[in-house]
UniProtKB/TrEMBL annotation, chain A:
Membrane topology: Multi-pass membrane protein
An example Gene Ontology CC term for this record: plasma membrane
UniProt subcellular location: Cell membrane
The protein's name: Carbohydrate ABC transporter permease
Residue ranges of the TM segments: 71-95, 107-131, 143-162, 183-206, 241-262
Family per similarity comment: Belongs to the binding-protein-dependent transport system permease family.
Gene Ontology biological-process entries: transmembrane transport
Residue span(s) of domain ABC transmembrane type-1: 72-262
Length: 276, 457
């Protein structure tokens, strides 16, 4: 029996190791490319270990793209705004769907979910025209307001989590003279740490990695985001792969830091919302 | 694990943070952001002197940050002459540039001047996103003689000039001088290729320059095709249909499409070209198959940079990469079937038909494509200026290879304007449907039939 258990355990570890290799491969390649000189990236067959090893891609990145620090700060600002906005509005709407007793609740929820199925490319031109007409073009408003006014994906995520919290808590609050706002702010939110953190991380990462919206809605260089700025490294007919890898690495760092710092809550939030 | 966020103060703090960030963000927008295209383009003229015009012109291009920096350098020179015209530059990458142009055309927020590629001119001219410049050109006596007629023609639609040429990149052949000079990499002492060779002469050289791991050449009977370590020639005819295949079809008297836009590659001359190219891969083993090319370099034109390729088709823009890769190279005109034919890819500048500041926009356009702007562009050494008055400046910059070839190739340009739908044929249908048959997997004649059916004209 113990041999069988050991075998299963070994098998699991082998599978995990293989999985790890699959996922870590591109990351290793990114790190390797980032530390190469540009001429090493043309070598055939390609070599994993950089020789000589250099950090010149980073200096080249900031020399060529003088606005890069600003773009990084812009991405941070918009991602934080959207992360906080998501917590605030999506949780409030999700609370309504999870806790109120309206007949229209299910129908409205289906309508909200149905909007998830419309690809953003379909609404691009109308959105673009709308934002241009109301003077939002070339500002951060198209990047923040739609997310700030709640997103169906996060409404769904929060609702699923709120459904797992016992209703008896609401009833007890009613007995004590509380109303919906009291239940939301003093009962539900304090118990929703994991999903609040997960929601923030998701919204942060979605915004941080969003390429399409800033590309279309932002024109001025100074207002641009890092995701779009990175694309300016690769031209139609030219490539500086180490510089691209260095830029990608910088884009990766905040996500990695946030994820590893809040990993525990993040997993709890996703598991408890039933999304996993 | 749960966190307690129960105090009202904490919620209030979060809301305050959001508000503060939001106000900061919106506030900074107003401070830094230029206003949208319509608002930005208001110009005032103090007198009839163009230098006194005060205006802000919006300008958009595709390309890397480095290219944006080069444009800004160029515009500094423009501002020396026109100090009161402020040009605001923005840039997108090639792929999404066209999405942005479409969206901006639909919403009326196109920049005053924007870069245009010959491949998309027809489409955007038909969409009404480009101003017909013909009358402006005659009104301001624009010097059309400074351009090759074929170059100007590429930016016309129905005889009207919708953009003025900026640069004319050409596709030529490059070879690695070091590989030819070294006995180890050239054991048979093959001569270097020269311009306008016949394909038979050319492929004989390529055979001698294709080596297996034991150093035997493709011209030797015991050559091991499964262990090629050095390729004689890299040419992805299917993947480079616009830059290699079409001109070679012309070279043999065939066409990709007729003047009425109908499909024409299924002629005997067309099939002869395709069968010849297939034999280089399947019978002679001197050209890698489509999948092998991709493993050497994602961009076939950059395969020469690996140092494992003796000869390769390449664009004039690839030379900077070859230099970075420390390749000692030379440029020659491509080989021919019957006649020498080449491809020149022209990009230019178009004008927003709804610009509020046509006068300043024209001044910028005229400067960028006129002798002053084109000489400034030539001095940067990155692009081949389209204006003939700047050619001497471009050639005067010594780069260690024969740049005259780029200029000479303009004499043999195939006069094939792009039209809406042709880009799909060149960039999607042919690469997808011809790569395998050219590599020996599938019937060429059937593939050509299928390509014609998919093209639908």
């Amino acid at each position: 029996m113990s041999t069988a258990k050991a075998m299963t355990s070994t098998y699991k570890y082998i599978m995990l190791l293989l999985g790890l290799l699959v996922f870590i491969g591109p990351l290793l390649w990114l790190l390797s490319t980032m530390l190469k000189t540009q001429d090493q990236t043309y070598v055939f067959p390609p070599k994993l270990l950089p020789n000589p090893l250099t950090f010149s891609s980073f200096s080249r990145l900031f020399e060529t793209m003088s606005l890069m620090p600003r773009w990084i700060m812009n991405s941070f600002a918009v991602s934080i705004i959207n992360g906080l906005g998501t917590i605030l509005t999506s949780s409030l709407i999700a609370f309504g769907f999870a806790r109120t007793r309206s007949r229209l609740r299910s129908v409205l929820f289906i309508i909200v979910l149905a909007t998830l199925m419309i690809p953003s490319q379909v609404t691009l031109i109308p959105m673009y025209i709308l934002f241009s007409k109301i003077g939002w073009y070339d500002t951060w408003l198209p990047l923040t307001i739609p997310v700030f006014l709640a997103n169906p994906y996060f409404i769904f995520l929060f609702r699923q989590f709120f459904m797992t919290l016992p209703r008896e808590l609401d009833e007890a609050t009613y007995v004590d003279g509380g109303n919906y706002w009291t239940i939301y702010s003093k009962v539900i939110l304090p118990l929703s740490g994991p999903i609040i953190i997960s929601g923030f991380i998701f919204a942060f990462v979605f915004t941080w990695t969003d390429y399409f919206s800033p590309l279309i809605f932002i024109q001025s260089e100074k207002l641009q985001m890092m995701s779009v700025g990175l694309q300016l490294i690769m031209g139609k007919n030219s490539q500086d792969l180490p510089m691209m890898a260095a830029g990608s690495f910088l884009a990766l760092v905040p996500i990695a830091v946030i994820y590893f710092t809040a990993q525990k809550y993040f997993v709890d939030g996703v598991v408890m919302s039933g999304i996993k | 694990m749960m966190i307690r966020l129960s105090s009202r103060g904490k919620i209030g703090f979060i809301m305050l943070c959001i508000l503060a960030l939001f106000v900061t963000a919106c506030g900074s927008n107003k401070g830094n952001a230029p206003s949208s295209g319509a608002e930005s383009s208001s110009g005032t003229t103090a007198s009839n002197d163009p230098a006194s015009i005060k205006a802000k012109v919006t300008f958009m291009q595709w390309g890397t940050q480095e290219e944006v920096n080069q444009t800004k350098e160029l515009l500094k020179k423009f501002n020396e002459k026109y100090p009161n015209i402020k040009v605001e530059v923005s840039s997108k990458d090639w792929e999404t540039y066209w999405t942005a142009i479409t969206a901006q055309a639909a919403s009326g927020t196109l920049p005053d001047i924007y870069k245009m590629d010959e491949a998309y001119l027809d489409k955007y001219a038909k969409l009404g996103a480009m101003k017909d410049l013909t009358s402006l050109m005659s009104e301001h006596s624009f010097d059309v003689d400074a351009f090759e007629p074929s170059v100007l023609h590429k930016l016309q639609q129905s005889g009207k000039q919708y953009a003025l040429p900026r640069d004319a990149n050409t596709i030529v052949v490059f070879y690695n001088k070091k590989l030819f000079a070294d006995e180890k990499t050239n054991p048979r002492g093959a001569p270097v290729p020269t311009s306008e060779m016949s394909w038979d002469e050319f492929i004989q050289i390529a055979k001698q320059m294709t080596l297996d791991k034991k150093g035997r050449t493709a011209a030797d009977s015991d050559f091991d095709k499964s262990s090629t370590s050095q390729w004689g020639l890299v040419m992805d005819a299917a993947g480079s249909a616009d830059s290699v295949l079409e001109s070679q079809l012309w070279s043999n008297g065939a066409r990709l499409v007729n003047d009425d836009q109908s499909f024409a590659m299924n002629s005997p001359e067309g099939l002869e070209v395709l069968n010849k190219f297939r034999s280089f891969i399947v019978d002679d083993h001197v050209v890698p198959s489509s999948s092998q090319v991709k493993s050497i370099s994602p961009d076939p034109f950059l395969s020469l940079a690996t140092g494992k390729v003796a000869i390769s088709f390449g664009g004039s823009w690839n030379t900077s990469e070859y230099k970075v890769a420390n390749i000692d190279f030379e440029a020659i005109l491509p080989p021919k079937f019957k006649e020498e034919k080449t491809v020149v890819q022209v990009s230019g500048y178009g004008m927003n038909p709804k610009t509020n500041n046509e006068e300043a926009a024209w001044i910028l356009l005229n400067w960028l494509t006129g002798s002053e702007g084109q000489i400034a562009l030539a001095e940067q050494g990155q692009s081949i200026p389209a204006n003939k008055q700047a050619v001497d400046t471009y050639l005067a910059i010594q780069d260690g290879y024969n740049k005259q070839v780029f200029i000479d190739s303009q004499k043999y340009v195939i006069p094939v304007p792009f039209f809406d739908g042709k880009e799909n044929l060149l960039w999607d249908i042919i690469p997808q449907m011809l790569s395998n048959p050219l590599s020996g997997k599938g019937d060429i004649q059937q593939a050509v039939k299928d390509i014609g059916a998919s093209y639908g004209k």
